[in-house]
Amino acid sequence: MATTLVKTDFNFPGQTSVYHGKVRDVYDINNELLVMVASDRISAFDVILPEGIPYKGQVLNQIASYFLEATEDIVPNWRLATPDPMVTVGYKAEGFKVEMIIRGYLTGSAWRDYAAGCREICGVKLPEGMKENQRFPEPIITPTTKADAGHDENISKEEIIARGIVSAEDYAVMEDYTRKLFKRGTEMAAEKGLILVDTKYEFGKRDGRVILIDEIHTPDSSRYFYAEGYEERFAAGEPQRQLSKEFVRQWLIDHGFMGKEGQQVPEMTPEFCESVSARYIELYEHVTGQPFIKADESDLSRRIEVNVLDCLKNLSL
Which of 102, 265, 272, 302 qualifies as a FRET site for 207, CA 20 to 30 Å off? Predict the structure, then answer.
């Protein structure tokens, strides 16, 4: 199996701290820049799974760069450079402790809640009689709190503002950007024969203005259906063909794991990891319309270090 990068331990010039997230490792340079390394780790149900997925970090980073570039006219973002297939370097911003999740269809965790009788998500009321994978009349925004550890929690717009997590003014900007980004992502997906089902955006503030931070429209943050056959499958009550991480979640559920206490992660064989890698690469090629070129992974850490050092040197000139 190809080499995977599941742990990083760099020490870049001017580095003040490092944050190891579920998937990304973020290095703070002089409290001004961030070096964000997309690892090959994979998480589901807020749990980091024990095996890495070959080329997953490269897929995520390159899709994110593709979409950040394609949406710069809608919202300013943090990205300055992509010096390595697995790395983005950009401005540091003060992140809001909220993830803006927007859903165009009733699926995934929202469907599981709905099927269990829930008719309101994050203060948004849902109509009776909806079916799995049904399109909402208008996309709905269902934010979550961004937990430093453990599970993110659903929260309503009203509660976010009442608790002072985000001001009413900043939330209005984030909401507007979220709808515009989702519209652009939906249009770009449709051009490639895909449906952007749902996704999440993260925002921060830099120099007094709201900017987009982190990845967008990747398989870790988004769900895609194939447009072809959607109507027929929906009418027949059949599962949709999708390009997302949902198939990993479903595999875990089928093997008795949903991230709950006492549950064991099923064995992730090399064959399974390769199959997940193939799905990620397939998604990259579909959403970008470009062939995926596997970067040299013989010494991932060294390659990343050299490319980042070169980038930081140029940015400081």
Answer: 102
